[in-house]
Amino acid sequence: xxxxxxxxxxxxxxxxxxxxxxxxxxxxxxxxxxxxxxxxxxxxxxxxxxxxxxxxxxxxxxxxxxxxxxxxxxxxxxxxxxxxxxxxxxxxxxxxxxxxxxxxxxxxxxxxxxxxxxxxxxxxxxxxxxxxxxxxxxxxxxxxxxxxxxxxxxxxxxxxxxxxxxxxxxxxxxxxxxxxxxxxxxxxxxxxxxxxxxxxxx
Length: 202
What we know:
single chain; 202 residues; 23% strand
């Protein structure tokens, strides 16, 4: 029998995806810690209001963070708008236990430098007709880990960066919760680059 999930959510800013997880009754009790690399991130206020302890990374000290996570028996990490590249040793320490959400259909408009509204501007500049949201397991290379879920939305002729951002963010809130529910139920099975979503994988 696999142990129940104890999750840390990593944020850097507003934390609206964190709020979506807090508002999900199947997930909220599994949120043990909120981690930020910015002490002024608004998401820390969301964590405090929800009664979830927080931790600020200082000087990229991920060794100390590993000690903190281990002490709390964290066995799942959700990157919810976290704007820092995790070092390889950290990713290796939590192999197949770190999930990221990205506001495009990977492998398009992703990787180093593609985050937030920069992604949506690139989508509009390229003139694609569809964009979307991707959740994936994290590897040492940015946005290159095995894909879990993807959802598509249409880019309107009248969309600008702000309107597209609103539409994509609304979809993010849905997809991150679906992904985390599957993860908490041990329903994600990874083989090579392919993630199968199915029955409980004991």
